Amino acid sequence: MPDYSLSYVLTTYNKLPYLKQVVERLVAARQPDEEIVVADGGSKDGTPEYLQGLFDAGLIQQYVSERDKGEAHGFNKAMLRARGTLLKLITDDDAFSYPAIREAKAFMLANPEVDVLTGNTGLIHLEKLDTAILYDDVADNFKRWLTQQEVVWMIGLPLLIRRESLALTGLFHTGVVQVDTEFTYRITSLNINMAWSTAMLSVRLENPQSNFRVMNQGKGANASTLESSRMKFYYDKRIGHTFKDFVRHQSGWLEMLKKPLRPAKRVLYDLLKRPQYMGNTTMPTGYVPGPAPLDDAARLATAFDVADRLMADYNAAHPTEFLFKNNQLTKALS
Question: Tell me, what's the pLDDT at 1?
Fold first, then answer.
């Protein structure tokens, strides 16, 4: 039998101020049947000493600090060390709702046929703490996978993975930057059983050190889009090598034709009172800036507090449901 019901697996590299905010909350939330496993990529900012202090105090159960080959490599090392029935991914600069994670853990333990669970994620920019975004498009992607078996991408922050299911899903791909995009394209192309929690399990805190922002700098301004497209073309078996497939999925011609027609389509849908996609939902966080600007440390601490309140308020207003293949709620999505 596994030693723990859940292993929190966390990777980090030279983000000690962010890491402290994350770990402080994680340590406070950890239950006796859970462990914390940290893989540090050989940080030079005091992270190894910080982790050693946590380990000596019994606040984390495992850690390694050594040079690695990127985020995927770090996660893989942590997952292979983990001793829990379930694995919960934790990043070093984002916020997580531990009450919602405990709900998801209980659901997965009660439903051993579920390989992977995901759910809602918010987004807050560190430079604009008064506004948050809910990733509605990810929820729509899950519904398309669930009802139409489409190969889709989803955000990695809310993921819980059954450790035994790694034999089916595989580990993370060490040759890509967008680790979660590749992993979710891959698993949705396989015969897995995945569930969705309607709770907000995580908030992405977009910041100057975020992987996405770093990846898309300078000449690589569209690097994430190009990498994501390569993944989709590889995993989506419906996309072949015909001229028609090229025109539809790779040439960009369809998007060029649709773009000028969209304003007229919105007007028509408004007149017909038909629902239409308007982008991800924007919501206020309740944060009100003070008279004096915040320094970097205060802004970072405030950002995590704002994210915590956002998740707590959202989840209090939206009772959690779990959607998966064997659930009668599936019918409502058809």
Answer: 57
Closest by alpha carbon to 313, among 152, 122, 86?
122
CA 180, CA 135: separation in Å to the nearest integer? Answer: 15
Burial classification of residue 58, based on how many CB atoms lie within 10 Å of its CB (0-12 exposed, 13-18 middle, 19 or more buried): exposed
Say if residue 49 is in the same domain as residue 105.
yes
**Are residue 196 and residue 266 in the same domain, yes or no?**
no
C-alpha to C-alpha distance for 140 and 204, rounded to whole angstroms: 18
b vs e for 191-225, b when ≥16 Cβ sit within 10 Å of the residue's Cβ?
Answer: ebbbbbbbbbbbbbbbbeebbeeeeeeeeeeebbe
Indicate whether 265 and 287 sit together in one domain. no
Residue 330 has pLDDT above 50, yes or no: no
CA distance 170 to 168: 6
Q: Which domain does 252 fall in, by range?
A: 243-272
- Residue at 232 is within a domain: no
Quick: pLDDT tens for 19-64: 999 999 999 999 999 999 999 999 999 999 999 999 999 999 999 9
CB atoms within 10 A of CB 173: 17
If asked whether residues 82 and 200 sit together in one domain, one would say yes
**Statement: the pTM of the whole predicted model exceeds 0.90:** no
CB 158 within 8 A of CB 144: no
252 and 176 co-located in one domain: no
Which residues, in sequence order, are bridge partners of residue 89? 9
Q: Answer yes or no: are the C-beta atoms of 171 and 81 closer than 8 Å.
A: no
Based on the structure, what is the number of domains in the chain?
2
Residues 179, 258, single domain; the answer is: no
Q: Comparing 147-161, 213-227, 283-297, which segment has the lowest mean pLDDT? A: 213-227
